Every structure is written in structure tokens, then in C-alpha cells.
Amino acid sequence: MAQTAVVLAAGHGTRMKSETHKVLHPVCGKPMIHHLLDSLHDARMDHVVVVVGQHREQVEASIKRRAQVAVQEQQLGTADAVRAALPLITSDTETVVVLYGDAPLIRPETIVHLMRLREENRAACVVLAAEVTNPKGLGRVFLDPRGQVERIVEEKDATPEERAHRLINTGIYAFRRDALEEALREVKNDNAQGEYYLTDTALILSRRGERVIAHIAEDEDEIASVNNRVELARVEAICRQRILTGWMMEGVTVVDPGSTYIEAEVELAPDVTLLPGTMLAGRTRISSGTVIGPHTRLVDTVVREGARVQYTVAVEAVIGENAEVGPFAYLRPGAEIGQRVKIGDFVEVKNSRIGDDTKVSHLAYVGDAEIGRNVNVGCGAITVNYDGERKHRTVVGDDSFIGSNVNLIAPVTIGKGAYVVAGTTVTDDVGDDGFAIGRAPQTTKPNYVRAWKARRQNRNPEKGGNHCGH
Q1: Tally of helices (H runs) and strands (E runs) in the chain
Q2: Which residues are documented as binding site for acetyl-CoA?
Q3: Tens digits of per-residue pLDDT, 51-98?
Q4: Same domain, 200 and 278
Q5: Between 20 and 30 A from 459 (CA), which of 135, 307, 337, 446?
Q6: Average pLDDT value for residue range 410-434
Q7: Residue 362 annotated in active site
């Protein structure tokens, strides 16, 4: 028999004070609803239905083909939202798990456990509950002497005595499909909010003699939900710690977890070392034996074995084996750094391939270029790639030498083994083994400076003398 998940994501989340739908706010670099969809995938859920309402287009565009979409036209409560999903729940479904799109931290193991508990106990419903220190704003779960769910009371409808109760309803359930459908038909909206509460299904099923049990979550953090930016930051912190712990258990050294940020889609190999201030984002891939940081941000970047990257920002770049990047380097999209390459301080590389064993040690810009193997690019060298309308490409052959303060005016090609003298502006191609020099003739006037200063003083006597502050 099949298992179906219903994810409630109809409310926009006004307390977020954002034009972005609440469930699309990122947690560790990924929209929170995608964390939940990933957990459902890992739990081997057969079908997933996401219930949308306000700003539905945003949610639909984000989840695309990951789930079917049901629409709750009016926000009349959680039971009404689940009703909207019923037509999409297949007839072969045995268990329906209901979850919330703004609670992204539930683990796949917990979802599987809820379904197993329902099946093994032949229960109509399993309620995921949690014992919390501060239950304010949450529904309370009350058990009878046999340990079954007696009732669930929303805080707005609770008495002062009931509000003192600390066993709360997480809003996550596993239902037998036919029991859910029957209970939903009986849910009324005679409560303080005038809404149809899904929590009422538990009482309805109990009164009909069905078995309704609770599973108390072991980890309170797992059921954390987001209603405002403060809660979003808390969920982000929990998720980030989970990610760090997971990678450390896989053999990654994180010198200072408190200052290290790894997003959800990043992949790390064993024996990676992350120094303080490291931020890894997007689909960054880090190979074994690398040292990243301190104070380095990599986004959608690949780092090969043995590389060292420090005080660097890299976006959509590739860094080769045993390369050294930084300090204070900037690798922009399309930068491909070869093996054993040195990219030094205040070097910027964009849409360029740097061949193996090449050195660009400091204060250089390499843009839209193909730099060969074993090339030396001197301090202050620039590929002049933009003419005001179009970008042009520079090609430098293997074993060439580009001196300090050289301007390579693209499009231009420097041949293999060529030598470009410091201070040269190159406008024409240089062939293999070519020697290029483009300096203006130097004029030196001996015994000149004092006389020159005197003439200036005579022309501008008002500027002479000692003035206050000089």
C-alpha cells in the first residue's frame, strides 16, 4: 500500500513581513520547503501533495515537479487545507502523513517511525507531540490513563490550567486514509477563530472508538517552525549545526564551528580542513586534503585535491589540484585554475583558464583569457578585455613571461615562450619566442630639480613662504 504526504503551505506568513512566501525563505541556502521535500524523499514517500493558497505561483514555481499541488482557495483552517488535498490522494494510499512547509527540520527517520507506529498499532492516527520548556502559542496534547490522545486544545481555546500543560502538538500526524476522510467530514468551526482545525480529528476519531496515539519527539529542535525572522534565524542555526556535525563525523576538520557556515547542498570529502571564517555555499564541492580559509567564501565552486584557499572569494570557479589561491584573491564565474597554480594577493580572475604551474602572484586582472602552462604573469599585469561595447579574449602561450605593469589589449595572442617586457602595452600579436617591448623613450635631465623648483616659485610667489599648518 502507498504512503502519501500532505504538506500545508497555504498561508503567506504575514509575520515574516516579506513579499517572499514564508516556505520559500532559505535555510542554509535552500528554501525551507525543499528541506521538507528532501526528508520526504529520503523517507521513501510514494506521493507528495503540497497545499498552496496565497502567493501560490511562487510556491508552485519553486517545487515544480517535486510534488502535486492542491489549492486552498480561502484560508479557513488546517482541516480545510487537508480537505483541499483529498482529491489528489490516491485510492491505494494506506497512510497519510500531514506536515507543515514552515517546519523544515523533521528528520526522515521520524517520518518513517510515525508511519510504522500507525501500522504496528493499527491506529487511526498518530500525533507527533513534544515536551517543551515554553509551550506558548502552541496547541496542547492531553493523554488519557492508557496513554492515548484524549484531546488537543489550541492555546486560544485553552483555559489557564490547560495552558500550563507542556506537552504540545507539533501539527504533524500520520493518519489511516479512510479514518482521516471520515473525520474531516465531521470537523466544525465552532471555536474562537472560526476555523476548521485539523486537531479536532483526533477527538472525533477517539469518540468513534478509533485508536489515536501520540509519539513524543526525542529532539525538540526537530519540530521547530518558522513564523517570523527571529524563528527563521533559530531554525537556520539548528540546521547549520546539524550540517557541521554531520561533516565532522564524516572526517572533515572544522577548527571553529562557531564561525564556519556550510550550506545544505555543499559536498566535502574526508580530510578537508576548514579554518575560521569559512563560508561554503551553493553546490560547492571540496576534495580531500584541501585547506580552506581562514575567511574564505566559496559559492558553487569546485576545489580539487590538496589545494589551499585563504582569504578568498570564489563564485562558480574551479580550483585545481595543489593550487594556492589567496590571500585576498577574487575568482569570478568561469575562472578555471589549473594544477599547482599560484593566484596571489589582490588578483582577480574572470572567465579565464589558467594553465598548470602558472603564477599570477599579485595585483593583476585576468579576464576573458586563456593563459597557458608555466607562465609568469607579473605584478600589475592587466588583460584589457572590454572596448566599451564587447568583451575580447586574450591568449597567452605556454612558458611565456608577462612582465610587471603590462597591458594586453584584447583581442591579442602571445605565443609560446614569448617575453613581454615590463611596462609594455601590447596591441599586436606576439609570435612564439617573440620579444615585445613597448616603452616610451625615457628622458633624464641631470642637475635639474632645484632649478625647476625655483622657476616654479618665481612664477607663483603667492604660493611661497611658510604658512600655518605646513
Answers
A1: 9, 39
A2: 385-386, 404, 422, 439
A3: 999 889 999 999 988 999 999 998 899 999 999 999 999 999 999 999
A4: no
A5: 446
A6: 97
A7: yes
Instruction: Return the CATH number at 67.
Output: 3.90.550.10
Task: Return the sign of the alpha-carbon dihedral for residues 397, 398, 399, 403.
Answer: positive
At 110, list the grid cell. 521520524
Q: C-alpha grid cell for residue 295? A: 575567511
Catalytic residue among 25, 113, 215, 362: 362
Give the number of residues written for the chain.
Answer: 470
Residues annotated in a binding site for UDP-N-acetyl-alpha-D-glucosamine: 8-11, 22, 72, 77-78, 100-102, 139, 154, 169, 227, 332, 350, 365, 376
The answer to whether the CB of 284 falls within 8 A of the CB of 301 is yes
The half-sphere exposure of 431 on its side-chain side, counting CA atoms within 13 A, is: 0
Q: Which domain holds residue 406?
A: 252-436
C-alpha cell at 194: 472560526
117: number of Cβ within 10 Å: 16
* 256 lies in the same domain as 389: yes
* C-alpha to C-alpha distance for 124 and 212, rounded to whole angstroms: 6
- Record the cell numbers describing residue 27, joined without a space: 535555510
The cell numbers describing 107, all together, are: 528528520
Residue 399, pLDDT above cutoff 80:
yes
List the alpha helices (DSSP H) in 22-107.
32-42, 56-63, 78-85
Counted domains in the chain: 2
Same domain, 257 and 405: yes
First vs last Cα of the chain: how many Å apart?
91
Q: Provide the CATH number for the domain around residue 291.
A: 2.160.10.10
